[in-house]
Amino acid sequence: MAPFSEFLLFTGIGALAQLVDGALGMAYGVTSAGMLLGVGMPPALASASVHYAETFTCGASGLSHWWAGNVQRRLFLVLAIPGVIGAVLGATALAHMPPIWIRYFLTPYLLGMGLFLLFRTTRRKDRRRDVPRGTGVLGFVAGVLDAAGGGGWSALTVTTMVARGQEPRVVIGSVHLAKCVVSLAASITFLLSIGESKLHVVLGLILGGVIAAPFGAWLVRRLPPRVSTLMAGLTVLALGIYNCYHLLRS
């Protein structure tokens, strides 16, 4: 495949992954990495490329959510600061920790949380705007798992906070802006330990993500909270099933 054709392919992958992530608040890493593996890219290169690109795509998405009024400043800070610490520790430990350990923990969590979110769509409950206790710990754990396991920041933070009754669009917007900072910390750590990725892959993912980011922010602002919760639940359940499939094959 010619380099320019490859660049267009990676741009399309980045746009689709960011549109899914911006609308649901999760699944950029799973979507983009899955498609990169599907076109024959080695797993290590796919993971590194996604982490480098996420620094820019999440920044564009986070700023789009901020301009759309979807970001709560205190929630962003409480997630971002512990998340950066966790990401650095997780990326550093990646070389010494089998990735399957992360799947053993993450799979039952995703399955259970996905079912719980689907159940919540049948109940009415007032949405809360405060920052619950333990959110900082959640950010730290999500940062560790995201860097060490190649994903999970949004799946853990968004599902947990939405399940606790916080407004989906505020959670999604704040998580995206915090993800930009966490991805930057993880990328610097990966760059020091793994090295650079193919430039045209990263640039394609970045361009596609930047183009699609405003559309994702626009979409989530117009979705009713119950619809956002339903879509998030189905997505998390799919991620859990995806992890189960890979565990059974390993």
TrEMBL record:
<feature type="transmembrane region" description="Helical">
    <location>
        <begin position="200"/>
        <end position="220"/>
    </location>
</feature>
<dbReference type="InterPro" id="IPR051598">
    <property type="entry name" value="TSUP/Inactive_protease-like"/>
</dbReference>
<dbReference type="Pfam" id="PF01925">
    <property type="entry name" value="TauE"/>
</dbReference>
<feature type="transmembrane region" description="Helical">
    <location>
        <begin position="170"/>
        <end position="194"/>
    </location>
</feature>
<feature type="transmembrane region" description="Helical">
    <location>
        <begin position="75"/>
        <end position="95"/>
    </location>
</feature>
<protein>
    <recommendedName>
        <fullName>Probable membrane transporter protein</fullName>
    </recommendedName>
</protein>
<dbReference type="InterPro" id="IPR002781">
    <property type="entry name" value="TM_pro_TauE-like"/>
</dbReference>
<feature type="transmembrane region" description="Helical">
    <location>
        <begin position="49"/>
        <end position="68"/>
    </location>
</feature>
<feature type="transmembrane region" description="Helical">
    <location>
        <begin position="101"/>
        <end position="119"/>
    </location>
</feature>
<keyword id="KW-1133">Transmembrane helix</keyword>
<keyword id="KW-1003">Cell membrane</keyword>
<feature type="transmembrane region" description="Helical">
    <location>
        <begin position="227"/>
        <end position="248"/>
    </location>
</feature>
<keyword id="KW-0472">Membrane</keyword>
<dbReference type="InterPro" id="IPR036259">
    <property type="entry name" value="MFS_trans_sf"/>
</dbReference>
<keyword id="KW-0812">Transmembrane</keyword>
<comment type="similarity">
    <text>Belongs to the 4-toluene sulfonate uptake permease (TSUP) (TC 2.A.102) family.</text>
</comment>
